[in-house]
Amino acid sequence: xxxxPKKVGFYQDPDDTARMRGAYLHTVAxxxxxxxxxxxxxxxxxxxxxxxxxxxxxQPFPPVTTRQMPQGRxxxxx
Length: 78
Hints:
- By secondary structure, the protein is mostly helical.
- The chain has helices at about 15-30, 35-55.
- The relative contact order is 0.07.
- The model has no long low-confidence stretch (mean pLDDT about 90).
């Protein structure tokens, strides 16, 4: 049995958030995402699979815990 999903958070430009919500709301009937969380999870995992295919021979990267992630301000601002 899989573990219960955990809540994660990230920062996003408010205009991008509104655009994401619009994409979800206007396609939920045709795409079938059960929730906004499912929509976000699908989008993120699609990108993860692309990166694994491009940089790790299609294999999952080693898992990284929250505490192993760099903390503090980003190294550069876009």
